[in-house]
Amino acid sequence: MRLAVLGAGAVGRSVADLASEYGHTVTALADSASAVVDADGVDVDAALDRKRGDGTVGDADPADALAADYDALVEATPTTLGDAQPGFGHVRAALEADRHVVLANKGPVAERYDEVRALERESAGEVLFEATVAGAIPALSTIAGLGPERVTGARGVLNGTANFILTRMAAEGLSYEHVLSEAQDLGVAEADPTFDVEGTDAALKCAILANVLHGGGYSLADVAVEGITDLPPSALELAAEDGRTVRLVGEVTGGEARVGPRLVPENDTLAVSGTMNIVQLETEHAGRLNLSGRGAGGPETATAVLADVDRLS
Amino acid sequence: MRLAVLGAGAVGRSVADLASEYGHTVTALADSASAVVDADGVDVDAALDRKRGDGTVGDADPADALAADYDALVEATPTTLGDAQPGFGHVRAALEADRHVVLANKGPVAERYDEVRALERESAGEVLFEATVAGAIPALSTIAGLGPERVTGARGVLNGTANFILTRMAAEGLSYEHVLSEAQDLGVAEADPTFDVEGTDAALKCAILANVLHGGGYSLADVAVEGITDLPPSALELAAEDGRTVRLVGEVTGGEARVGPRLVPENDTLAVSGTMNIVQLETEHAGRLNLSGRGAGGPETATAVLADVDRLS
């Protein structure tokens, strides 16, 4: 397939880098300020070298990437809230041109799911978005395989940064602020960690899971969200005395979506460590399925993107 | 889809029972001695009532089921070794009639994978077999999504009976014989538990995983197998003193397939409890994925069968 990759952050770069190994051709690659377009295939190595150099991927305008020849648009620009722009506009443009869309950007399917599906119904293109929920973990494809109507609930640890912080706080008895600073030094937390530690990122994933399980109708505003910023070390100590720990758990059950710190047994399957994620699916006839792995990272998320591209082939 | 279901054990019965909920019609249902065939749809409830009564599902000959009108054959007769008959013959007949095949029976793809694939290449029908490896756990569909060439190894606890026995031996310090007898009372182990406790069942699953990962070439004879029948409680006690336990682990790595008792840390993801199964996939770009859940059971395995049927639709 010919891929137009929008976004040259960790995920977009990894998709571009791995595409040829998967038998695909990158015909356009864009970041927010520049693009490179070549119907015969972009020189990805050169574009990524240039990105590391002057910060641009080429001489073209970002808008040129959307006008390129491609079969599937890989939307990997940063997730935005509310109107989910510019990602949503990219999705619309691709579907109106009867092209497929593979999302790594959570915004369009977390905030404007019903509109995305309406555009898809009018298009010859399809929209897939495995990468938007827990990176490499095959959560959405497993739900699709089971049939969403036979998944009665989903629960999970959906944010690696928050989980790293909780794991370290529990293991070392350190304060939230101390561990956050350590996580920032390690590159596990961003300079502005708000999205992760206040639960927004996990809540977007819950909105997407709720949309998939219930056929739409959810956005971030429908998710009850509580983060981990106010969690005192004493809460973790109390939990530990009882053989428990605290995890930032996202849940979709009975039509309700919520994210918040929850007490879980220390040895529970849900109590994954460090930056690991887990998704638990409650099924109608097959009990509980646990899917865990790396929920973020460039190559990990790109793996989910490229699996979606293969499903479209 | 119209389904011909061969085998009326726990899995075949569950497939027949759930088929209508999934939008499918059972046009034939057979056990080893009888069958019921109706091109308009078998009365499944009546057939299963009759099975509970006199042990037959209908008045027809089992061979009539293969001659029925159907789109997909569900092969759920007992797994057999070596020539994998009569399952292999059923697969051949369906593919030669250009019909799809969904296997719950491990024999054909564990023992005669290359022949099954050769028949499939000549047929308009496809062969799927998610249910043959760890029941409801989406191991094969996850490998298909990643691309088998990007899965560098697979490892897992693939037999619930053996795992139940090891879990109980470790928790209670009981002997193998004692726990086996308890498992038989609970219906977790069969009267003849050989297949499970000597590792054969797990080894068949390893042969299937090896075939999928390496494009064929494996049968049971290619798997190095050691069971749990000779494991003394003292081995589990020694392991526990070191924070470890013993699991019957099946592995496919570097082209080698093997099954045997392995020491694993007590809190390790691999150390699932009771009758749970787990499959760990090592991926090229996305690290390790853990997939766990119920590896056996009628409705659980039927869920995997019916997910395969949906993939063919």
Automatic annotation (TrEMBL), chains A, B:
Start and end residues of each Glutamate/phenylalanine/leucine/valine/L-tryptophan dehydrogenase C-terminal domain: 2-61
Entry keyword Glycoprotein: no
GO biological process: threonine biosynthetic process
Coiled coil: none
Active site residues according to the UniProt entry: K205 (proton donor)
Enzyme class, first EC level, given as a word: oxidoreductase
Binding site for NADPH: K106
Residues binding NADP(+), per UniProt: G7, A8, G9, A10, V11, G12
Xref: InterPro entries: Glu/Leu/Phe/Val/Trp_DH_C, HDH_cat, HDH_CS, HDH_short, NAD(P)-bd_dom_sf
Keyword Cell membrane applies: no
Location of the Homoserine dehydrogenase catalytic domain: 146-309
UniProt superkingdom: Archaea
A GO MF label: homoserine dehydrogenase activity
EC number, as in UniProt: 1.1.1.3
Annotated Gene3D superfamilies: Dihydrodipicolinate Reductase, domain 2, NAD(P)-binding Rossmann-like Domain
Record's keyword terms, sorted: NADP, Oxidoreductase
A Pfam family the protein falls into: Homoserine_dh
Annotated L-homoserine binding sites: E190
Family label: Belongs to the homoserine dehydrogenase family.
Protein name, as recorded: homoserine dehydrogenase
Lineage of the organism: Archaea, Methanobacteriati, Methanobacteriota, Stenosarchaea group, Halobacteria
